[in-house]
Backbone:
């Protein structure tokens, strides 16, 4: 079911879906779209099928109509009619979709847990590791992980070294806020502002 829908001042709109429905119920919400039914046939994982369907439901809620989602060779989604920019993310039983009329979008949702502590050296630079707030390390690490994933999506570059080519400026984690990130993988070497929000189970980070 849709649990959050929001449009920001910069034109970004997001929809968060809590996947409580069965596959049949989600298909019903999609008017039993035959094309979507064909698209999920290759998925052997029930979880993957539910995520796929829920993200389509969330997208339709954002746009007010049925949309056809395609994928680039690198796995990045796009709309068949190219009417909007889109980004999709999943974690646990949640599906998250973001759209923007013109700007490329990067969004990520990550569960707060112990895993991020075990893999932190794989995506953070030594300086970023030093900046972690020990009073709320799990949340801080999860925000950083989601921020780098959102950056990766908005950059649209297939090969990116997370520890060296996406750098997050130091920040103190709150329940929500803004962080600054720099990428050095492209010739432009862009700087991005990212917004984050902390929920009881997960964090969401998005940027355009």
Residues:
């Amino acid at each position: 079911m849709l649990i959050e829908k929001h449009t920001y001042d910069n034109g970004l709109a997001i929809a968060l879906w809590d996947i409580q429905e069965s596959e049949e119920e989600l298909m019903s919400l999609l008017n039993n779209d035959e094309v979507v039914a064909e698209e999920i046939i290759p998925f052997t994982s029930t979880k993957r099928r539910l995520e796929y369907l829920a993200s389509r439901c969330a997208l339709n809620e954002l746009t007010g109509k049925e949309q056809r989602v395609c994928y680039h060779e690198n796995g990045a989604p796009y709309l068949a009619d190219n009417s909007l920019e889109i980004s999709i993310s999943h974690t646990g039983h949640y599906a998250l979709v973001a759209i923007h009329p013109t700007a490329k979008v990067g969004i990520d949702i990550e569960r707060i847990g112990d895993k991020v502590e075990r893999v932190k050296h794989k995506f953070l630079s030594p300086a970023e590791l030093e900046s972690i707030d020990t009073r709320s390390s799990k949340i801080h690490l999860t925000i950083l992980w989601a921020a780098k994933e959102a950056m990766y999506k908005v950059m649209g570059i297939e090969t990116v070294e997370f520890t060296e080519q996406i750098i997050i400026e130091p920040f103190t984690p709150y329940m929500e806020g803004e962080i600054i990130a720099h990428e050095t993988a492209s010739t432009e070497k862009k700087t991005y502002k990212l917004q984050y929000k902390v929920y009881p189970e997960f964090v969401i980070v998005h940027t355009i």
Summary: The CA atoms of residues 149 and 156 lie 11 Å apart. The mean pLDDT is 96. The first strand starts at residue 2 and ends at 7.
